[in-house]
Each structure stands twice: as C-alpha cells, then as structure tokens.
Give the backbone structure.
Amino acid sequence: MSRVSVNGVDLYYEERGEGLPILGVHGTPSSAVLWADAAQELARHGRCITYDRRGFHRSSPPVPFESMDLVEHVDDAAALLAALHAGPAVVIGRSTGGLIALELARRFPDKVQALVLLEPALFTIDPDAAAWARNLRQRVLELASGQPGLLAESVIREAAGDAAWEALPAGLREMFAGTSNAVLAEINGHGFDLSDDALELSEEDLAGIRRPTLIVSAEDSVGAFRAVNARLSGALPFTHTVQVTGGHVINPAHPAVLDFVDRIAGTDRAASWHQSDGT
C-alpha cells in the first residue's frame, strides 16, 4: 500500500513496471481496484501508475466533504506525477477519468506525452450528448432522493445498464456503494460531467491539446458516448480512433491501447503522427 500527500489529501496509488510512465485515471464511481488486471498488463509496456481519486475508496476526502471540483482532480493528477517523478506520461482516462485526462493535457501539457480516452465524459461537446447528461443527472438525483447511498448504483445502472450492476460481485457492489459520497460531491461541485455547470471546451481549447490521442468507443455503449468521441476525433489535432466490442467499461489494456502505448514508447516526438488520422 502506497500513499502520497498532495493538495491537502492523501492519495492511494499503486505502481508496477518500469520505463514509459503510464497514468490510469478511473471514472465515477470507481477505484483503481477495477484497473488491477489492466495495470498488470500495462506494466509489461511501461511504468504503470493507478490511483484512487480523492474521496474515492482508499483515498482521503477533502474536508469538508460536501463538493469536489474538476480542477481539484486535475491538480491532484499533476501533483501525483510530480511527486513520483513520473512525467510526461501516457494518460489513460475512462469516462470521467477521460475528462480529467483532457484537462490535465490542456492545463499541464508538460505532464502528458499522449492520451488514451476511453469514452471520455465531455458531454458538452455535443448537443444531444449534453441533453442526455442533463437527464442522467436528474434521474440519478431522483432515484437516490433521500437515499444518498444509492447514488453510485444509480449512476452505473443509468449509464451502463441494469445488467452491468447485477453482474458485479457483492464485494464490488459494496465498494461502489461506499463511493456514493464522492459521487454526490462531484454532482455538487463544478466542471464534472454530472455537475450543474459541466466543463465546456471550445474548438480552440481542443485544438491546443497537441498530444497524440487514441480515442476508443465501445459498440454497445449509449449513443452519447459515441457522439462525444466523434466530435473529439474531429477537434483534437492528432487522433486515432478505434471501436471495440462490449460496453462502456472499456478495458484499459485492450490490445489497441497496448499497441498505442508501444508506439508512443518507440517515438520521442508527437510530430511523427500525421494530423487528424494518427497514422
């Protein structure tokens, strides 16, 4: 068990392998627990670092624990990389973690060598996706009204389907339920996908993220995620896109991701990537 103190909180993290730094950023609700198998595989391709974001599972929450803002999580990721002398890194973000990864690359470009975005939750980039996210926020709050402990379960059921929740082992359901306070804090905070004022990035903002980027979509995800990815593939300067089987919880160590990481490890300059198609 390893911990590092950054920005007033203690973050739990795990580190495996050596070489090219790889940072895994989990979604909401979630934990590095769900990245354990992927981290073992990623460690064969570089120095893999996964962590529980502030307030989630084994990392400490802020005090008071009433709200959390996107900027805090971005600052935590940057500080974690700095504390571990691990930048610039290939940053792999899943769902809300992808939102954090994008902002990390925009605000701290020196910390990021490349991005892997597994259906990032930047819903404001597409009108239909933004409407879906607003409805999701409302449904989740209604479902968990008076029962805040159900927030994490409600998010998973609404975003990934009832079957995804029912398939979880009892221990993971308990872990997810324990993150409900963090889910509520994000909803009450600023900039997150389910916040009242979700992050909006302009075309100029996105064009300024000049890092090789792999964008991954899943065949069985809801249309909002695919719409976001389609918009991002046209807005970010250096992208390659792939579609994989399954649903929203995409494997961070999918062969397409491993191939991308190996390509990044084998080049020193993002300029070797052609603009737009990433080939």
About this structure: The first strand starts at residue 2 and ends at 6. Residues 21 and 155 are 31 Å apart (CA to CA).
